[in-house]
Design goal:
single chain, Alpha-Beta Plaits, Rossmann fold, alpha/beta, 10 helices, seven-stranded mixed β-sheet, 2 domains, globular, four-stranded antiparallel β-sheet
Length: 337
C-alpha cells in the first residue's frame, strides 16, 4: 500500500502573493501555517552583483512569497483561509491578491529553491541557502539556512538591523539570549561572532523546529540551546499573530523551559526581534535577565511605536546606547546599568 502511494503523481497548488518588504515576515508566517511542511519561498527583488554570487536587495520593488498545497479535498478551504488572512494583513501593509496555479510533483520538488540567493549583511555576515556553494572570503562569517521555513531569512529590515548590531556588540565568550528566534539566524550569527552559549526561545513550535534544523545545519548544537518558551511575562502573550488575552495576574517563571545541566543566567546580551507590544511587556524581565552592563538589542519596532518602547525601557532603568532605522523599522540598543 505504501509503495503504491509513493508512485502516485501528486498535483500541487502554488500560492503566491506580492507584498512590500515590511510585510514579508507576517505574510510568510501566514503561508507557513498552511503550506506543506510549513514551507515558504521568498522571491526577493534583486540586483545581481558585479562580482561573485552576492546580490543587492531592491527595496523599491515588491517581494513575492510562495507556498505549496497538495490538491486534495481540503485545498479550497485552506485557500479561502489564506485569502482571509491576507486581506487582514492588507489592512496594515500593501499586500497583493493571492495568485494560484496548478503544478505537478516533478515541477514542485525544487521549485522554491530558485527564489533564494546569497546575502551579505553588515561587514562580515553572509547568509547562504543550504543548497548553494559559497567560498568564504577572509573574515566572512557564514550562516547557512534552509529557508523552507521562512522565519527570519535575512530579508526583512528588522533582521538585518539586528545582525548589524550583533556584529557591533557580541564579544567572545558571551552568554546570549535570542528571544523570538524564528529561523535561528540571529542565534547562529551570535555564535559565529564568538558567543560561547546561546539560548534560542520562541513561542511558535514551527519556529522552534526551524531553528533546531538550522542550528544542526551549522554544526552549532553544542553551543545553541533551542526551546519553546519566552521570557517572564512574554510566556503569557502567545504568538504575536494570535495573542492571548489572559490576565497576567499569575506570571510564569523567568525562563519557562528546562535547560540541560546549567543555566545561562544572567545574560551578557539579549537580542529580541519581536514587536513593540511584547517588548514593552517584557521590559522588566530584560532587566532581571541581564547582568550589570549587559546589552539589549531590540527590533521589530515600527517607528510610530518607538516612543512606547523607549518609555518602557527608561521606566525600568535601561540606558539608551544607540538606535538604527531602516524605512519604517527601528532597532534600539540599551544597556543595563
Amino acid at each position: 500500500m505504501e509503495s503504491d502511494r509513493q508512485t502516485e503523481s501528486v498535483t500541487w497548488l502554488e500560492l503566491s502573493v506580492s507584498c512590500d518588504s515590511e510585510a514579508v515576515e507576517p505574510v510568510s508566517e501566514l503561508l507557513a501555517r498552511y503550506g506543506y511542511n510549513g514551507g515558504v519561498a521568498i522571491e526577493p527583488p534583486i540586483i545581481p552583483g558585479e562580482d561573485g554570487p552576492e546580490y543587492q536587495y531592491d527595496p523599491a520593488r515588491p517581494v513575492t512569497v510562495r507556498t505549496y498545497l497538495a490538491l486534495d479535498d481540503s485545498a479550497e478551504e485552506t485557500r479561502a483561509r489564506i485569502e482571509q488572512g491576507l486581506w487582514l494583513l492588507g489592512m496594515i501593509r500593501p499586500v497583493g491578491p493571492l495568485q494560484v496555479r496548478q503544478i505537478e510533483e516533478e515541477d514542485w520538488a525544487n521549485a522554491w529553491k530558485r527564489y533564494y540567493s546569497i546575502q551579505r549583511i553588515g561587514a562580515r555576515i553572509v547568509i547562504v541557502p543550504s543548497w548553494l556553494d559559497y567560498q568564504p572570503l577572509p573574515n566572512d562569517l557564514v550562516v547557512r539556512l534552509d529557508p523552507g521555513m521562512a522565519f527570519g531569512t535575512g530579508l526583512h529590515p528588522t533582521t538585518q538591523l539586528c545582525l548589524i548590531e550583533l556584529e557591533r556588540h557580541v564579544a567572545p565568550g558571551m552568554h546570549v539570549l535570542d528571544l523570538g528566534c524564528g529561523s535561528g539566524i540571529l542565534s547562529i550569527a551570535a555564535a559565529r561572532l564568538g558567543a560561547a552559549r546561546v539560548l534560542a526561545l520562541d513561542t511558535d513550535p514551527i519556529a522552534v523546529a526551524a531553528t533546531r534544523a538550522n542550528v544542526a545545519l551549522n554544526d552549532m548544537t553544542d553551543r545553541i540551546i533551542v526551546a519553546e518558551g519566552s521570557l517572564g511575562r512574554g510566556a503569557s502573550l502567545g504568538h504575536w499573530l494570535h495573542p492571548k488575552t489572559d490576565s497576567h495576574a499569575a506570571l510564569p517563571p523567568l525562563l519557562p523551559v528546562s535547560l540541560p545541566n546549567e543555566t545561562l543566567l544572567p545574560f551578557d546580551l539579549i537580542v529580541a526581534n519581536i514587536i513593540a507590544r511584547v517588548l514593552v511587556e517584557v521590559a522588566p524581565d530584560f532587566v532581571v535577565a541581564l547582568r550589570p552592563g549587559g546589552i539589549l538589542i531590540s527590533s521589530g519596532i515600527v517607528a510610530d511605536r518607538e516612543p512606547d518602547v523607549v518609555a518602557a525601557y527608561a521606566a525600568v532603568g535601561l540606558e539608551a546606547v544607540s538606535r538604527r532605522q531602516d524605512g519604517d523599522w527601528v532597532a534600539l540598543v540599551h544597556r543595563k546599568l
